[in-house]
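[Q] Does anyone have a clean structure-token version of this?
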Amino acid sequence: MRKNGIIIAIDGPVGSGKSSTAKRVAERLGFLHLNTGAMYRAFALLVRRRDHGGHDPERLHQLISEAQIGFSDTGKILLDGVDVSREIQEPDIALLASELSTNPEVRAKLVEKQREIGKDGGVVLEGRDIGTVVFPDAELKIFLVADQLVRAERRMLEYDNLGTHIPLNELANQIAERDKRDRERAISPLVQAEDAVVVDTTNLTFEGQVKRVLELAQARLGITQDLALTTLAH
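[A] Here you go.
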């Protein structure tokens, strides 16, 4: 066992339920929640603020070297010490983040930060390469999947809640493009780790998917208290 407990790695494509599930599981276990995708989005926001299109490798190297990206005690993503959780939810930032994540130097720098934050355990990390690249020795690896249309519907609801409406067919096309890019990129592609447990969230409620992950975590931790029931009560 690591100093603070186990490392839980949750991977999967966009809209599969990684962020919301990882956050709730971390709360129930008293673990730190680390949204690695938010780190790439925060960097994309920095790039956008510097009026740079994101295609010049030399400029990107300079920016990622200077970038101050981290998390608050409550799990909020910080850029230069400022909470940018809402700003990074904009659709154009998500698309730019996906593009920037294929840059070797950007990826190496952020993976280094992720490993430093999570090395002592007691953390739930979610992304696309946590169980394969960032922490291949994680004690629990989970790969979330869901039907593409269901994922598009979930993403549309998220944007609607932020006051931004994007048609379902447009989001479905974006997700298909994102899936292709994530799976085919040369560096850290989205693949299921051999020892990961697959959880299909297509027909699961939010409480159902949290319950399933908590059950797996409890088995690794040897916890007898039913944390899933505690989750459903909140």
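[Q] Thanks! Anything notable?
[A] Strands lie at 7-11, 32-35, 69-71, 77-79, 82-83, 123-127, 140-145, 197-200.
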